[in-house]
């Protein structure tokens, strides 16, 4: 089955040791982001050298039992990280049983631009609009990207991550195993310069997706060349049984302006507030409040900041005062 040019295999098929190691690293990164922890903070909580988590997530260190146990505990991941380590061990056992001859050294990994520190991309404007219709959320992301490097940019990595019960990760993980996010329900679309963008799934998990948006389609290629700026837009839908009452933005690339707009039915009488965290500071209230506006049927909350710090995280939360509380939570990354 394909959508937008993305190929998707079954998640229960046997995977290679290399893929299992990559999945482990992605799981650690996902829960670290969900918990709002920097790599340095996680390493400190685990009693590791500050650089160790960075090396683990980049693939320079292989998964270990000790790291898996400590990371799962520090991130309160409900055994999700531990299960990825078990998958890695099973993949190693299968490879050992196959008694394959020594493999040639793997080819050097191509840098996953632009999703890395030192990337050539700058985000001139980042605008998110999240609209709720009473049953589902539709997130529309618009970004004005500028290529400040010396090579064309041909793809852009985004993340979709949900956590319905962040205070009870085992319950949350069980919920998504029974009710996983599907590509059909997400209905992911992406455009650039008026052209549809193909996309490819990098990680496809029950509550976590990583997707490459490609600067091409069946009609041709349209890379972002050095010195150019271009708007890209992508959107997806998640039902409120899998989303919830918070939305977090993480700054992973140099960004000049960040904007978030929440639009809810006015009849629900929504109340919105927010917090921010950085590499060096704990969570604190947003320095400026979201600005409210009403047009009768919709109540909108807009929050804007300029030149946000790299790796800062901004989290908006809400409550519907005209509806009984529901314990649901969600987060979107990049």
Helix-strand layout with pairing:
Layout: E1 2-3, E2 6-7, H1 17-34, H2 39-46, H3 52-58, H4 65-74, H5 80-98, E3 121-132, E4 136-147, E5 155-162, H6 169-178, H7 183-186, E6 189-192, E7 195-196, E8 199-204, E9 208-214, E10 216-217, E11 220-221, E12 229-239, E13 246-250, E14 257-265, E15 270-277, E16 284-285, E17 291-294, E18 298-306, E19 313-320, E20 330-333
Parallel strand pairs: 3-14
Antiparallel strand pairs: 1-2, 3-4, 4-12, 5-9, 5-20, 6-7, 6-12, 8-9, 10-11, 13-19, 14-18, 15-16, 15-19, 17-18
Helix pairs in contact: 1-5, 4-5
Query: How many helical stretches?
Result: 7
Approximately how much helix is present in the residues? 10-25%
DSSP strand count: 20
**What would you call the shape?**
globular
Strand order of the largest sheet: 7-6-12-4-3-14-18-17
Give the biggest sheet. Answer: 8 strands, mixed
User: Could you spell the SSE succession in H and E letters?
Assistant: EEHHHHHEEEHHEEEEEEEEEEEEEEE
Class from secondary-structure proportions: alpha+beta
Strand content is: 35-45%
Distance between the termini: 25 Å
Mean pLDDT: 86
CA-atom Rg in angstroms: 20 Å
In the predicted model, the low-confidence regions spanning at least 5 consecutive residues are 5-12, 107-118, 327-334
